[in-house]
Amino acid sequence: MNKIVEKEFFSENVVKLVVEAPMIAKSRRPGHFVIVIADEKGERIPLTIADADTAKGTITLVVQAIGVSTRKICALNPGDYLADVVGPLGRATDIQRRGTVICCGGGVGVAPLLPIVRGMKEAGNRTIVVLAARTKDLIILEREMREAADEVIIMTDDGSYGKQGLVTNGVEEVILREKVDEVVTIGPAIMMKFVALLTKKYEIPTICSLNTIMVDGTGMCGACRVTVDGRTRFVCVDGPEFDAHKVDFDEMLMRLKAYN
Asked: What pTM was estimated for this model as a whole?
């Protein structure tokens, strides 16, 4: 069992939990995820690790309450325990010195983007972050991103904060003013699709994280299968990150409708 030591509400349905998991905190790398089970009868929930503190032996998870199990997890408080946390799982982000890197995230996709931003900066890249949400209240981890990146651009659909527009507007703004060597995008599948279409036009290598389609996290259930470069891949064991220009997002969006 893993003890919850801190809890913070980002919004009504999005919660940050700091959880005791010393072995995971020590070995995790940007891009890794864990499987979380709320209680003995709970289902397996894959969550990407947003942060880790090796000194305290903790990891940080950001959870959106959208179903029975995630609502159970979000209802827990400091001092409560998760039945199980297993990880780190998946393949870590390929972080190298490339030059100028744009890291763009939408919604809770900003959480797994944070360790990637830090890693890109530590590798010597000029790191620009584009955060997007429907409204100001849904922007998360802005302070942490500003501390980690060279520049942060905020985009909101309604213009309530930052600039009005979509994440692609913010990304293209940077592309038009300076040379960009790589783009990393994490968020809703539809957002990543249009980021990929934009960067393909400018021939900029782009990485996307498809953690939104994962269920079991072991490759056994097959729910996270996607087509990448014409071949079937399983996000939880082959990813969660892939070349965004090779992902069949239309197929992925069709399969995501099954969860509605």
From this structure: 0.88
